[in-house]
Amino acid sequence: MGVVNVTPDSFSDGGRYDDTPRAVEHGLALLADGADILDIGGESTRPGATRPLVAEELDRVVPVIRELASHGAVLSVDTMRAEVAVAAVEAGAAMVNDVAGGLADPDMLAAVAATGATYVAMHWRGHSDRMQSMTDYSDHGGVVPGVVAELGERLDACLAAGVDAERIVLDPGLGFAKTAEHNWELLRGLDAVAALGYPLLVGASRKNFLGRLLADAEGHPRPVDQRESAHVALVTMLADQGVWGVRVHDVRAASDALAAWQAWRNA
Ligand code: PMM
After folding, report:
1. For the chain, does the N or the C end have fewer beta carbons within 10 angstroms?
2. Among protein residues, the one whose CA lies closest to atom 16 of ligand 1
């Protein structure tokens, strides 16, 4: 899944593709690099981000989805809002990628169920302006059981709202109300999340925990655009664990890693 952030302020690529022609051009380039799905987002979820108006979000994503759909791309909309999800599906999106797993908008799950779109339910505890103060998982005995329990609740809510079980994908939500250590624990404990019985999507691309892993001698995190080699190692391991998808910015690097992994497996 290649990321197209039509936002002025995403941490990894904010402002680079924040108008329709540039976003479409970027999406087409990601397809040429081997993306199977493009994830179109109009709201930055970086820690501390403020939310756009609904109208702004619609203006950002709908024209890009309409245009990329006309090129035959399989499209996902990265949104927490039912209204945006419905408009995106009408414009040609086949998937709704909701980082809030339905918690940010009480209408989301019923709206998605009515569209018949595939739904990605990510683990989430609160909006970006406060999520990094919500990293206490001690009530659950740790981040892995905590995410499994809370994602399990979202799963039940999806099914109760009528979302087709065949169309649900789960995501542990790396970096969302998680410390760097939590992200590593989740990657290590992904089997427990997979045991919920649904396909998994994982987004590690360019995230802060990789910057911290690769920090220089003074402790300065490695810049966002220089974290790819470490990410490629994760993509390969995630593929080997059987995850359904990886959400990535550098599709060429991830595709190359997967090609090598596949050739090795098939030999
Ligand atoms: N991460 C971001 C945005 N959307 N969606 C899913 N399903 N999983 C993620 O981990 C995820 C996401 C934040 O990254 P970005 O600002 O680079 O898009």
Report:
1. C
2. 10
**2-204+243-266, what's its fold?**
TIM Barrel (3.20.20)
For a pocket test of ligand 1, which of 30, 46, 76, 78 has the largest count of ligand atoms closer than 8 A to its C-beta? 78
Strands 118-122 and 38-41: unpaired
Task: Output the CA 247–ligand 1 centroid distance in Å.
Answer: 7
- Expressed in angstroms and rounded, the spacing between residue 67 Cα and the centre of ligand 1 is 22
Of 5-19, 61-75, 101-115, 203-217, the range with the lowest mean pLDDT is: 5-19
Nearest to 80 by CA among 57, 47, 59, 64: 57
- Whose CA is closest to 99, among 182, 188, 202? 202
Residue 267 CA to ligand 1 centre (angstroms): 34
The finding on whether 182 has its CB within 6 A of some atom of ligand 1 is no
Asked if pLDDT for residue 22 goes beyond 90, the answer is yes
Closest to 240 measured CA to CA, from 183, 184, 196, 202: 202
Which pTM does this prediction carry?
A: 0.97
How high is the pLDDT of residue 18?
80
Query: What residues are labeled active site?
Result: 207, 247
79 CB near ligand 1 (under 6 Å): no
